[in-house]
């Protein structure tokens, strides 16, 4: 648990420490997401290359802003944000993105799985901050809304005419990539 010496007025130090810990997890997840999005941006190929390539840069930029907002919230609460690659790798509970140079649609299938994980974890932290810190909760709610919109952009490429997703039956990146093809 984070140890802090001060926090914002009206927030108990113990509550601030809990919020800092959950924000550190979000910082790692969002840092990982922006790196993954850029990796996909560089490695898409095929007929949908340019659409996906150009769709991803604004997502990268937006997620980088989220990273900065989370880190600054940690500092505001009296914590010390840890954005080093080593800290991210040590603390994360998920595997590296597993798709290299591949068809754009395959990447989108895998990226849908990535977004699902990040959004689900964001929603869990939203629930936890409801009574702890509504200011942090508000930030996370806004971020979740933006992340959900980006997932919709991804899913629009994967949707069948009957409204189902080509990759819906798979929970793994590789399985979703294969199903999306």
Automatic annotation (TrEMBL):
InterPro entries: DPS_DNA-bd, DPS_DNA-bd_CS, Ferritin-like, Ferritin-like_SF, Ferritin_DPS_dom. Residues 21-160 form the Ferritin/DPS domain. Belongs to the Dps family. This is DNA starvation/stationary phase protection protein.
């Amino acid at each position: 648990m984070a140890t802090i010496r001060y926090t914002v007025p009206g927030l108990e130090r113990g509550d601030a420490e809990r919020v800092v810990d959950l924000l550190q997890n979000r910082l790692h997840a969002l840092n990982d997401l922006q790196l993954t999005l850029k990796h996909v941006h560089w490695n898409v190929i095929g007929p949908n290359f340019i659409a996906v390539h150009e769709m991803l840069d604004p997502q990268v930029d937006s997620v980088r802003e989220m990273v900065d907002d989370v880190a600054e919230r940690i500092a505001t609460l009296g914590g010390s944000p840890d954005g080093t690659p080593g800290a991210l790798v040590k603390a994360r509970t998920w595997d590296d993105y597993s798709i290299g140079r591949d068809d754009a649609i395959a990447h989108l299938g895998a990226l849908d799985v990535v977004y699902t994980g990040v959004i689900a974890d964001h929603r869990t932290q939203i629930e936890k901050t409801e009574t702890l810190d509504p200011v942090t909760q508000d930030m996370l709610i806004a971020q979740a809304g933006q992340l959900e919109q980006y997932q919709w952009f991804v899913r629009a490429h994967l949707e069948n005419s009957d409204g189902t997703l080509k990759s819906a039956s798979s929970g793994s990146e590789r399985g979703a990539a294969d199903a999306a093809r």
